[in-house]
UniProtKB/TrEMBL annotation:
Residues 24-247 form the AB hydrolase-1 domain. This is Alpha/beta hydrolase. PANTHER family: HYDROLASE, ALPHA/BETA FOLD FAMILY PROTEIN, NON-HEME CHLOROPEROXIDASE-RELATED. It comes from Desulfitobacterium hafniense (Desulfitobacterium frappieri). Residues 248-259 have a biased composition (Polar residues). It holds the Pfam family Abhydrolase_1. Residues 244-265 are annotated as: Disordered. The keyword rRNA-binding does not apply. InterPro entries: AB_hydrolase, AB_hydrolase_1, AB_hydrolase_fold. One of its GO terms (molecular function) is hydrolase activity.
Length: 265
């Protein structure tokens, strides 16, 4: 894919973004402990063959500075700044996992700015076990299993984690667990989940594509079925027999997401 990159400046902090491919711009937000490179792989190229992917490194990830205290409003302003820099009045926005939360919130707050929204493996409810990820013990364990093929193979026996080993082999996830940054976003999600996002999402006016894996985490399935009922113009697309990381690292679906999304409801 053709590539390039650029930077934004926000409050004295530098925020990095990368460009992949050709076509109409698709602004993309990655997940926890990832960066914009996750959108540079073969899967994303096949899912969005006619899009130029504009992948933002969220604050603290990739080549972007960490912005202490940054929340959904700050991320929303970064999205606006990036779209303005690209001279986009209306645009398409995609988010994976954590990035999906920011993408959904942006669509709620800016109903007239998006022409299409893609939410991949997004959850608005935080699983209880994610609080364990804030511990130093988890950081040590993560560093160990992320470098061990046998450990990754054993973890992939959990259906929801299918695709994790390939994510690591493609170096799409960091082999270090940054407690400061990841804990910041996890704690932000803990507070954010208390808001009724299903009610808020009724303000979304653009066409929305909800993509999740059949065997992914329970809270992701709950989120997507809830959003399908709440959103006015949505299409639910389930990836059969796949886990949380499969949309990025697994076998791509037979149809491209733009074609599936065009069906609407």
């Amino acid at each position: 894919m053709k590539s390039g990159h650029g930077t934004l400046t926000y409050g004295g902090f530098s925020i990095h973004y990368a460009l992949y491919g050709k076509g109409n711009p698709l602004l993309c937000l990655h997940g926890l402990n990832l960066d914009g490179r996750m959108f540079a792989g073969k899967n994303m190229k096949e899912l969005f063959p006619d899009r130029m992917i504009v992948a933002l490194d969220l604050p603290g990830y990739g080549r972007s500075d960490f912005i202490p205290g940054a929340g959904v409003l700050e991320i929303s302003k970064l999205i606006d700044q990036l779209a303005d820099k690209l001279d986009l009045n209306q645009f398409e926005l995609c988010g994976f996992c954590l990035g999906g939360i920011f993408a959904l919130d942006y669509a709620i707050r800016n109903p007239g700015r998006l022409s299409k929204l893609y939410l991949i493996e997004t959850m608005i409810y935080l699983p209880w076990w994610m609080t364990l990820c804030n511990t130093s013990v988890f950081r040590i364990l993560y560093r160990g299993f992320s470098r061990n093929r046998l450990c990754l193979a054993l973890l992939e026996m959990v259906p929801a984690l299918k695709g994790l080993r390939k994510m690591q082999s493609l170096k799409l996830t960091s082999r270090l667990w940054n407690n400061r940054v990841n804990s910041f976003y996890i704690n932000m999600m803990k507070g954010y989940q208390k808001i009724d996002h299903l009610q808020r999402s009724k303000a979304v006016s653009c066409e929305t594509m909800l993509i999740f894996s059949d065997q992914s985490f329970k809270m992701i399935r709950k989120t997507n079925y809830g959003l399908q009922a709440a959103l006015r113009h949505s299409t639910l697309y389930r990836l059969p027999n796949d886990g949380h990381f499969s949309p990025v690292s697994g076998s791509p679906p037979h149809q491209t997401l733009p074609n599936v999304c065009s069906r609407g409801r």
